Amino acid sequence: MRNLLVDKKSGDDIKVKVRDLKFGGTEKIIISGPCSVENYDLMLKIAIELKKIGVQMLRGGAFKPRTSPYDFQGLQFEGLKILKAVSRETQMPVVTEIMDPRDVEMSMDFTDMIQVGSRNMYNYSLLKELGKVNVPILLKRGMSATLSEWLKAAEYIVSGGNENVVLCERGIRTFESYTRNTLDLNSVAAIKKKCRLPVIVDPSHGTGLRELVPNMSLASIAAGADGLIIESHISPENSLSDSRQTISIEALGNIISGVKKLEGIFYEDKA
Amino acid sequence: MRNLLVDKKSGDDIKVKVRDLKFGGTEKIIISGPCSVENYDLMLKIAIELKKIGVQMLRGGAFKPRTSPYDFQGLQFEGLKILKAVSRETQMPVVTEIMDPRDVEMSMDFTDMIQVGSRNMYNYSLLKELGKVNVPILLKRGMSATLSEWLKAAEYIVSGGNENVVLCERGIRTFESYTRNTLDLNSVAAIKKKCRLPVIVDPSHGTGLRELVPNMSLASIAAGADGLIIESHISPENSLSDSRQTISIEALGNIISGVKKLEGIFYEDKA
Amino acid sequence: MRNLLVDKKSGDDIKVKVRDLKFGGTEKIIISGPCSVENYDLMLKIAIELKKIGVQMLRGGAFKPRTSPYDFQGLQFEGLKILKAVSRETQMPVVTEIMDPRDVEMSMDFTDMIQVGSRNMYNYSLLKELGKVNVPILLKRGMSATLSEWLKAAEYIVSGGNENVVLCERGIRTFESYTRNTLDLNSVAAIKKKCRLPVIVDPSHGTGLRELVPNMSLASIAAGADGLIIESHISPENSLSDSRQTISIEALGNIISGVKKLEGIFYEDKA
Amino acid sequence: MRNLLVDKKSGDDIKVKVRDLKFGGTEKIIISGPCSVENYDLMLKIAIELKKIGVQMLRGGAFKPRTSPYDFQGLQFEGLKILKAVSRETQMPVVTEIMDPRDVEMSMDFTDMIQVGSRNMYNYSLLKELGKVNVPILLKRGMSATLSEWLKAAEYIVSGGNENVVLCERGIRTFESYTRNTLDLNSVAAIKKKCRLPVIVDPSHGTGLRELVPNMSLASIAAGADGLIIESHISPENSLSDSRQTISIEALGNIISGVKKLEGIFYEDKA
């Protein structure tokens, strides 16, 4: 079997830049924000709080892939505009999900990084489109994707000409129902051994339970992750979607301080 | 929770017509053909043989969703043209997979039914597009989709205005590795109890092993399926993809004769 | 890798006799009864009704493996005595579960067949003990056992000297939560191809939903199963355990009449 | 639903003592040794090396639960004697697996802690026996056990009168085949929130790949684990079983030094 471009054997590790941030370097990147973009004022308020505690990048859903057609589908383009405005105001880069290959071109005016959600990891039409553009991609693992399938999904983008791909482990679907998904940190350890791309972890979807997010954030970093993407809200109980897994700004602050300590250890290890 | 349009409680069972065929009636529909469309002569030859043994409808992949970007991706538009020509020649309706929402409009000139593959069951942009057109849809179950998610994917199409949806069970992803997937016939029995849409079964992908296809075809019909979609080839060992699960025309003939016997029993039951 | 004794290649198919019944012959064996033995009068009443509709063998749990130590653990020895008495009264053979290797010897005075439950398929101490005795064994598949592990569990018994093993598919644990388990009929088709032992199906545990039991019973027989084990009760709603999956005597009668029709087809096929 | 004795709400956290060691305190416990006990000289040699690098407790399999009856089943009683002798020589406590309820009494003369393996987590006859004795138990999670089932298995022992139970996460069975199992650290975080018992992690079985063991060991501790059980060998490539997941003494030394650093952080957090 031929090597993939994303295999360690095919070259040096790839660092993915998003404005001034670098995924895959010694600094761990913390992305946070609400599940859905709700309105400008709230988004700005959250962003300002997040910036204060050291969050480097904003997330917020504008196009929401929802299981039922009757569920809230996100603010769509209106949401993108809000994200863009808040990004300009706070000078924080943003990442948001795009689901339709027809929206890729347009979205580049609004976001610094395009997220491919778990449901679209096998959407090869979308992946091919993303291989043609020059924007960093956050590629979430499919909910039942093997490691091999996930890396080959990344290969669709990289072989198309865009090597700016950051992988994101977000939990897989198993028989366990206590947690929303089973966060598979084995995959993170494996990626650091065999793949050139950076990988971050989403402990919010990976657990579905806010009380497990702090421990699993630290575990992710210890497993080798290059960063975290965490759902947070000023008022977690009132967020429009996924409130059960959303944490407060204060809880996130504690996580960041734990991550900093782990960075210290890792840095020592490498020195 | 509101009822879905596809729930039994919301109305009579939906029969889906594809030319003269009717999914969801007393006759079981057998769809067959090779995994990929390879060339016109071979496709025609296979189609003629299939028609002789009682196959009512043709399948053949033109756009192939492949795990690796380096695998054969199908003949694409060339494949559609071949399917159309063979369909005209044999007077058999055809079904083929479309993956990109931008291809939906165009494909309607070439195919009688559009298949949504397992990897795209959660591709809501595609589903929404299919809700707007007037063409029958074959909606395969996602490889790790729950019954509830699958029915809601159908609801995306039906609520968009297109109620011509046939469900297709094709196996789910489990720990078992002896078979390619675990064919979940519980889902078929459940759909017949709670959903208005017809459901067929794909025992080729559902087992991945040609020697299991005959027994599982009969089991599917006994579980209540309205038809079968089976990969066959004049020369199974030489098919371009999925050869391990492709059966011969002769083996398919035996299956069809078994299905006819089961139809007899079922018809009696209902009389 | 050496062949197993249970592999087709190692000899003729094994027919397992339980008194006058023969598992693995042309006649399909129907085993039924309540989840738990509750008391003598009720057990006798159920047995008489079951015999009338053509059930050949009785089941009833005396030692119940329960997830919680605080759940009803069965009548234990008292239950065995009741089974024995009802068996004598109705002349029907019985099967019941034994969990402890220390109970094997004793249980042979009370039951015609010993069931190894799903939770004990990997209990090699128990399997070894059962290899030493001369009593037919019903070996249920572990809830997450691969086909290969299951056949090797049977091999523990057969290689110990007792080849009277009937396999029982009862569903595996997957992400799907609509049904209690995912009934894996692929395993039945595979066993008929590669293994010398008879195999039956338990659609009660395999679905967990009584409304799915009829269709899945027929599907099991069509997939090649040599029989069925089904939970039934005179008053399903009032059974002490598993009431949601227990069917009425009347529903069972309909299933048996469907099975007889399928036997007709299968018999013709073989003639 | 009644609270379980093992629930946080039912009382203070339980610290489990094995000789001078305390599971559930501030010190993380490292257990290590070969998969199987092979002979006295080798076991002693390994033990001495392990003690030097800070391992506090020895593991070694005497009774090995093997999928095939033809695989090496361990040295059995001979293995227990070797463990006992090495333990006396090195003053290190030992843990070993017992599978048969009839062996429990006898084994107490040879081991400081009894391990219930993954395959026997649902073996309620064994669990009940272990509830009656006064010896610490290491209860591994069943390979497809939900968190709830696992805690109830512990409850069988605790409600029987023996509250000295340490839980051990060792990976669950999923569709992912790159790793032997999917290590579910969510379960560790959840146990620390809701259960009174200590929990350790087995990254050897949890990954099946020695190159992933270091990262996953640190991740386990960061997730909240009270210790680790790791397969190691002087000559990993030559170990009689599980060699692919066995690490060298040197690699283990590095892990222990990483764990010490994490202890520093955790200690600070609590101070």
Automatic annotation (TrEMBL), chains A, B, C, D:
EC number: 2.5.1.54
Keyword Transferase: yes
Gene field: aroF
Any one GO molecular function term: 3-deoxy-7-phosphoheptulonate synthase activity
Domain DAHP synthetase I/KDSA: 16-256
One Pfam family, short name: DAHP_synth_1
Keyword Transferase listed: yes
Domain of life of the source: Bacteria
Protein name in UniProt: 3-deoxy-7-phosphoheptulonate synthase
InterPro entries, per the entry: Aldolase_TIM (IPR013785), Class-I_DAHP_synthase (IPR052899), DAHP1/KDSA (IPR006218), DAHP_syn_2 (IPR006268)
Primary enzyme class: transferase
Keywords, ordered alphabetically: Transferase
Organism, as annotated: Candidatus Clostridium stratigraminis
